């Protein structure tokens, strides 16, 4: 009888905790995924625009004999190397954001737990 | 009431321990002021060195060698830090003597003897961008 009463008292608290945690986690995940997605799209667009401008300029300079064919090839390959570095940057920043999310997750779990299980006496 | 409170605390501590364990494993190295400053300094020194490439390589060979050693140090430092593979790879691309950024530019200068001012200016654009990307990644890492 005592165990049944105890169970009735404990379960609502854990259920409250899970509900609150779920709600907080969804909010966090939504915020992070929207921010990350928007920034990646903007960075990608900016990079592509800049690369296009560089290629136009180099083509023009080659037409004017101010750059040799070898120069042009070197610069274009350089731009491809830059693209690789940019991709590495995005990958690294995504990992850093994931670390930040994990830390925020820890804070959310702790806060949720304390708000439900904290000393209410 | 006391028994209930004690059970709640046990559950709470168990959850905390679990998540502390999970959160201790980072996926990315923390920000390094040394790495950032290294990139800033090498960007300035490299772009200045490139300005000399309109002159004969042999006149500047000694200074170029000094710069190459500093660039190698930056790569080795990036390589030594745990969870830092992206930064390490960025430096690798930048200094690769067979590539088309700074390492490749130095190789080209040595091979040709000197480089046209137009080519120097256009190459500086790519290399400056490369250094900026290295710094952007470093500055985007979590603060220690």
Keywords:
heterodimer; A: 121 residues; mainly alpha; 0% strand; rod-shaped; B: 144 residues
In short:
Chain A has 121 residues and is an all-alpha fold.
Distance between the termini of chain A: 24 Å
Task: Name the average pLDDT of chain B.
Answer: 91
Residues in helix, % of chain A: over 70%
Largest sheet of chain A: none
Structural class of chain B: mainly alpha
Shape of chain B: rod-shaped
What does the radius of gyration of chain A come to? Answer: 27 Å
How large is the share of residues in beta strands of chain B? under 5%
Structural class of chain A: mainly alpha
Q: What's the shape of chain A?
A: rod-shaped
Q: What is the H/E order of chain A?
A: HH
User: How would a crystallographer describe the biggest sheet of chain B?
Assistant: none
Question: What this model shows, in words?
Answer:
The complex is a heterodimer of chains A (121) and B (144). With 121 residues, chain A is an all-alpha fold. Chain A is 92% helix and 0% strand. Chain A contains two helices and no strands. The radius of gyration of chain A is 27 Å and the shape is rod-shaped. Chain B has 144 residues and is mainly α. Chain B has helices at residues 2-23, 33-51, 61-80, 85-95, 102-112, 117-139. Chain B contains six helices and no strands. The relative contact order of chain B is 0.15. At the A-B interface, helix 1 and helix 2 of A face helix 1, helix 4 and helix 6 of B.
